Structure formats: structure tokens, C-alpha cells
From TrEMBL:
The lineage of its organism: Eukaryota, Metazoa, Chordata, Craniata, Vertebrata. It is a multi-pass membrane protein. Its main location: Golgi. It comes from Channa argus (Northern snakehead). PANTHER family: FGF RECEPTOR ACTIVATING PROTEIN 1, POST-GPI ATTACHMENT TO PROTEINS FACTOR 2. This is Acyltransferase PGAP2.
Length: 252
């Protein structure tokens, strides 16, 4: 998206509705994750569901599902293609917030923090994607921590900003977006807490099936995160993404 009027642009190279852009951006990690989980379950079940205490487990964790071949390359390809639109989306949201809150200093500062959290979330996702848990575990773990921490903080700040937007500027689409953001944020937080509980319980007691429940909650955390970002469908539904050449400065 370019902050200049169409009349100042040469013929656009690519012109895409933002709704299609949002759907495509979310489908990349969704399709990649489903493919990796399916391949792990059908072809690498024993390795993918192995736990350190060797108890019964029926689902692989996401880290396990994306650490083998060809799952590793499928996931890296999907996240690599997904990351550039995500950075663009972070910039688009910041531009939108800056226009809404130019005269409101607290919300403007929150907008800056939301931008930093969004960039950190995407960077953490890239880090845990390209450094598998079977390669350098500490780097993968730190990437996961950055991803989860910045994701939750970004969701919280976004819900706060959209609470203000709905109060002063909101139309029907923005009201719908705000309601779904709140629901998905609360659901995501709940899943994170339950996943942490099952993870700690598995490591402490090594009960059969507990790691399966952790893996299931981990899936729900990621799916709800994707759904949260999908609310951009309502936020920018009337906008377009345009890739164009700037006008040539012809001087004779």
C-alpha cells in the first residue's frame, strides 16, 4: 500500500483487494501446519510423538512436527512467504492507528508499542521456524518465548486500541472486528494457560496422554492466533494492496 494518490502512480503492476491479501497471508501458515501435522502422523508417528519419559502420546507438538524432513522445508517455505506480508500488515496497522490517534498521546504510544510487538512476534516466528528444536534447542526455545510473549501483548494492546476506535469512530465492520478480537484474545490466553498446565504436569508426573492434551492446546493457541490476524479482513476490507512503479521524472 502506498501513501500516495493513484493519479501519482504509473500503471500498477499488481492490484489486489485487501480481503484476498489477508486470506492468502493466513492460509500460508495454516496450510503448512496442517500439512506438517498430517505428514508427521502418517509417516513419522513414532519419532514425532516420542517423549523423554516414553509414555503414551498420540499427537506431536508443533516443534516436533516441523523439525523433520520434508515437514521442515514445507513449514519454512510457508512461513518465509508469509513473513513479508505480515511485516507489511504491521506497517499498515501503524499507519491506520497514527491517523486515528494523532491527537491522543496515550493511544499513539500504544500504537508504537503494538508495532514493536507485531514485528517481534513475526521475527520470533521466523527464528523458531528456521532453527529447529532438533538443531539448536535454546535458540528455538527463545524464539518460541519471543513469539508467544509478543503475540499476547500485541493482542492485548490491539484490543485496547480497538475499544477506543469503536467508541469514537466505529462502524458496523469495526464493531464486528472488535468483538472477534476480544473473543479470540481471551480464547488464546485460556489455551496458553491450559497448555502450560499440561506441559508442566507432563514434565513432573509423566502421565500417559497428558502430552497429547498439551499438543492439542498448542494447536488451538496457533489457530486462534491466525484467526486473530484474520480480523484484518474487516479492518481493511475496502482497501487494496498495490504494487506500482513510481512516475518517471522525465526531463529533456
Amino acid at each position: 500500500m502506498l501513501p500516495v494518490p493513484y493519479s501519482n502512480l504509473d500503471r500498477p503492476l499488481i492490484r489486489l483487494r485487501f480481503t484476498s491479501f489477508a486470506v492468502g497471508t493466513v492460509l500460508l501458515p495454516l496450510t503448512g501446519l496442517i500439512a506438517c501435522l498430517s505428514i508427521s502422523l502418517f509417516y513419522h508417528f513414532e519419532d514425532a510423538t516420542y517423549t523423554h519419559c516414553q509414555v503414551s502420546n498420540y499427537l506431536p507438538s508443533i516443534s516436533s512436527a516441523i523439525s523433520r524432513v520434508p515437514e521442515r522445508y514445507i513449514w519454512r517455505c510457508c512461513i518465509g512467504l508469509h513473513s513479508a506480508p505480515r511485516y507489511l500488515l504491521s506497517a499498515a496497522y501503524f499507519s491506520f492507528y497514527r491517523g486515528c490517534f494523532m491527537q491522543k498521546l496515550p493511544e499513539l504510544l500504544l500504537s508504537c508499542l503494538a508495532l514493536l510487538c507485531s514485528l517481534a512476534e513475526n521475527t520470533g516466528l521466523l527464528l523458531l521456524t528456521y532453527v529447529a528444536s532438533t538443531e539448536t534447542y535454546n535458540v528455538h526455545k527463545n524464539g518460541f518465548i519471543v513469539f508467544i510473549g509478543s503475540s499476547l501483548l500485541h493482542m492485548l494492546i490491539t484490543c485496547r486500541l480497538w475499544h477506543v476506535i469503536k467508541r469514537y469512530y466505529g462502524n458496523q465492520e469495526e464493531m464486528t472486528s472488535y468483538r472477534w478480537k476480544m473473543r479470540l484474545f481471551l480464547f488464546n490466553c485460556s489455551c496458553c494457560l491450559v497448555a502450560y498446565y499440561f506441559f508442566r504436569r507432563h514434565n513432573k508426573y509423566c502421565e500417559p496422554g497428558i502430552y497429547t492434551l498439551f499438543a492439542l492446546c498448542e494447536y488451538l493457541v496457533v489457530f486462534s492466533n491466525m484467526a486473530f490476524h484474520m480480523t484484518a479482513f474487516w479492518d481493511f476490507g475496502s482497501k487494496e494492496v498495490i504494487v506500482a512503479m513510481p512516475p518517471e521524472d522525465k526531463r529533456y
